[in-house]
Amino acid sequence: MVIRSLLAGAGGYLPTRVVGNDELARRFDTSDEWIRERTGIRQRHIAGPEETAAMMGAAAARAALADAGAGPEEVDAVLLATSTPDQAFPATALRVQALLGIGQGFGFDLSAACSGFIYGLSMADALIRTGRARGVLVIGSEVYSRILDWSDRSTAVLFGDGAGAVFLRAGRGEGGPGDRGVLSTHLHANGALGDILYIDGAVGRPDRPGTLAMNGKEVFRHAVTKLAEAVDEALAANGLERGEVDWLVPHQANLRIIEAMGRKLGLQRERVVVTVDRHANTSAASIPLALAEAMGDGRMRRGELVLMEALGGGLTWGSALLRL
Ligand code: UT7
After folding, report:
1. Is 251 a catalytic residue?
2. Do 12 and 139 fall into the same domain?
3. Is 186 noted as a catalytic residue in this protein?
4. Known catalytic residue at 114
């Protein structure tokens, strides 16, 4: 028998304000047609002044706990992935801990840009399998609208705000791919590629709060090859063939990348969870938001195999395989 991290519940939060492509086209030189053709994005949610990473992360985490039927006393750790924390410290994870009335355990933020949720899931799984925690909230919460250069059309149209969360609970398995729970996670990074996607500044540099900069073509090129490798790695680690995966829940940056990964896995279109059309790229929040949507509407069923993958600034990338 082995300890497994079971996905007990998922939840999401999206800001109430929706901004369509046409609204952006009225503000600067772009068009609905260009945005949809190149990215698949039709609209994004943009945070209001009260909607911060902590507030949205807490709402998503509350929904994940409710979905799991778990109370705050079951949470041993809160791991929150964000590039847009409310404050440098306390960690946004701990603001969420307080907002949810979690009175025990520990928590921290982690910075892995768009791969943040996969990194968080991997850390949470390690904590659970080594017996350091039995219940872990993994949250991605982002307000990229506050770090975008709104005069740069090549990045301003790509991102949106939101939060997603999952609650993982310790369970038991046989140690094979038939187990429920997280089966494997695969993390990678290459700091030498840090200059193709970054936020130029931080609180340590008061002259420069920071805006996002990206060489889209280069990131696209790395995404297609590195995500394909990460997908193969997850299948090989579990002795699985590509036809055996039931669902792909990818990071939502670009519909063309998402569809390429779906084809690689031999999945029908409806087996690939897509939210990029409505949410745009919500960075670390995109995978848990997509999971919450697909679990919430009943598409996904207990026992099905879910592959997740992401790539983001760092460069960071990785994959995770999970049986519901
Ligand atoms: O989440 C982290 C991971 N991120 C990603 O995976 C993103 C990866 N990259 C991409 O998704 C794509 O590279 C983009 C969607 C960012 C860009 O698509 P592209 O097909 O690579 O376009 P491009 O950057 O090569 O730009 C093509 C043209 C350029 O004009 P010229 O030089 O050909 O005349 C741009 O100036 O499109 C122009 N352009 C725009 N036109 C209208 C760039 N942005 C816009 C815009 N509206 N918003």
Report:
1. yes
2. yes
3. no
4. yes
pLDDT in tens, 258-289: 999 999 999 999 999 999 999 999 999 999 99
| Whether residue 114 has its Cβ less than 6 Å from ligand 1 | yes
Cα separation, 314 vs 188, in Å, equals 10
Residue after which a domain boundary falls, among 122, 152, 173: 173
Could you identify the atom of ligand 1 that is nearest to the CA of residue 24?
Answer: 48
Which pLDDT value is given to residue 208? 76
Does ligand 1 have an atom closer than 6 angstroms to the CB of 153?
Answer: yes
**Catalytic one of 21, 238, 254, 281:** 281
Residue nearest to atom 13 of ligand 1 (CA): 216
Task: Judge if 157 and 200 occupy the same domain.
Answer: no
Number of domains in the chain: 2
* pLDDT over 90 at 203, yes or no: no
Residues 165 and 200 in one domain: no
Cis peptide before 90 (omega within 30 of 0): yes
Instruction: Note the pLDDT tens digit of each residue in 210-264.
Output: 999 999 999 999 999 999 999 999 999 999 998 999 999 999 999 999 999 999 9
Query: CB within 8 A of 3, min separation 6: which ones?
Result: 128, 129, 131, 170, 171, 172, 173
Q: Which of 38, 218, 227, 289 to mutate to test the pocket of ligand 1 (most atoms within 8 A of CB)?
A: 38
- Among 125, 144, 173, the domain-final residue is 173
What pLDDT, on a 0 to 100 scale, did the predictor assign at position 209?
A: 75
135-143 and 161-173 beta bridge pairing: antiparallel
3-state secondary structure of 137: strand
Q: For the full predicted model, state whether its pTM sits above 0.90.
A: yes
Residue of minimum CA distance from atom 12 in ligand 1: 216
Cα dihedral 242, 124, 166, 136 sign = positive
- Residue range of the domain that includes 28: 2-173
Q: Which of 114, 186, 222, 254 is catalytic?
A: 114
